[in-house]
Amino acid sequence: MRRFVIGRARNLLESTRQNYQFQRPLLSSSQFPYRFLSSTPVTNSPSSSTMAPPVTVNTINPKVLECEYAVRGEIVTLAQKLQQEIQTKPEAHPFEEILYCNIGNPQSLGQQPITFFREVLALCDHPSILDKSETQGLFSADSIERAWQILDQIPGRATGAYSHSQGIKGLRDTIAAGIEARDGFPADPNDIFLTDGASPAVHMMMQLLIRSEKDGIFCPIPQYPLYSASIALHGGTLVPYYLDEATGWGLEVSELKKQLETARSRGITVRALVVINPGNPTGQVLAEENQRAIVEFCKKEGLVLLADEVYQENIYVPEKKFHSFKKVSRSMGYGEKDISIVSFQSVSKGYYGECGKRGGYMEVTGFGADVREQIYKVASVNLCSNISGQILASLVMSPPKVGDESYESYSAERDGILSSLARRAQTLEDAFNKLEGVTCNKAEGAMYLFPRIRLPEKAIKAAEAAKTAPDAFYCFRLLNATGIVFVPGSGFGQAPGTWHFRCTILPQEEKIPAIVTRLTDFHKSFMDEFRV
Fold first, then answer.
1. Is there a contact between 136 and 144 (Cβ–Cβ < 8 Å)?
2. pLDDT per residue over 377-409, tens digit each?
3. Could you give the CA distance from residue 342 to residue 372 in angstroms, rounded to a whole number?
4. Pairing between β-strand 360-365 and β-strand 484-485 as defined by DSSP bridges
5. Residue 504, exposed/middle/buried by CB under 10 A (0-12, 13-18, 19+)?
6. How far apart are CA 513 and CA 84, in angstroms?
7. What residue ranges in 112-188 does DSSP mark as E strands?
8. Is the pTM here over 0.85, yes or no?
9. If 0-12 CB within 10 Å is exposed, 13-18 middle and 19+ buried, where does residue 12 land?
10. Which of 82, 108, 461, 527 has its CA 20 to 30 A from that of 193?
11. Angstrom distance (rounded) from CA 208 to CA 304
12. How far apart are the C-alpha atoms of 179 and 330, rounded to whole Å?
């Protein structure tokens, strides 16, 4: 009986399917608001060999074609190819390894993670070991205590479950308390949106602010390519303002005013100002007086201040200190109703360098409740950021304190990393300034140097013949000769007629002398080859 019923049901379904496919008229989008996909084969279609591909570079979103991300561009692709060749045939090239100086990815270049952070993460991800007696001998007492505190804030103590779309409330409380301790002004956990690194937060704000190509976003030149790429993807217009290399990559408000007037004369509505402090790729740290002028400018012109502050721990000169833009604005007496500020922070930089854990947050202040609802809606589309990244973000803003068991080891690890980075920055800066035709400003912070290179005219003509930018031509030649990976300045933007490259200070300290030697030898050979 069951087989008979199933057979009748199959026949009925098949009959219904055929009637639906061949007899029912198609509904237009105006008749029916939903779009269906069908796997039904189309009869009388041309053979697959003559069909055009469903997707080509001519049919994808043109905004994708427009955006570029030089940090992982053609030179890095070539470097990865060379690395594979070295592994299969070590004698294929005049170098034994690729030295990646192209990206701020500390742990890939040998930097060790902070022990306390990793202990807490391990315990949170495997809470069953918290009750085992052996755990007391393997983990510090404060990492065990912190893991319990964090797990108590997570529903079901499940790090593999979704969280609130803004992030776990208890972790946001911890981050807000850390911001308040840093700045000396109140911070609200409801202003915190935890994200998978700072990049998704930047994209979220671009989605919010950009309505069409008539909306512009102020960006520094040179700039981190995330911003130009994000603006392009979301259909806006990048409005450049040039940092002054002659004054240590200074940000002049007069330059902002000039570029704002130019943009408005072209019908562009400038919505926001991006400031990267400490600077990427330029490594400068803004003076507090300069920050005050920037805050005043944004307030007067009605601009959202997008403050990229992911390198706030990376400052290498005693005369400079990090001040968040929110702190500066509050110290000027400006509150929520006076200026809109979005601050970005990440676990990828600083002394922690946890790039692969994808943790970060943005603090959103000065927006109305109705706009905040829309930001939350956009965050909800992505459900939530990953829980390990959320935990790390809370640890970064609330590390061990004096008196905690882990404090001394934590402090030694942190200070060791930061002091080594400062030495590496100084060594590379000195090396660049000894090269013919190269000048390099001091690396006050962040993880990069951005030297200017004055190339011989013959080299510029050779680059034009190769249909590449002169600084990219130099970087390609450097890679093929030495295995050193720099990013050409043309990928970050630069003043017309100037050429640069970006170099990270992240290769391990014992490898810096080899980089300097290889670079020095190559540069002399290159300049001799193209000398007029």
1. yes
2. 888 888 888 999 999 999 999 999 999 999 999
3. 12
4. unpaired
5. buried
6. 24
7. none
8. no
9. exposed
10. 108
11. 11
12. 13
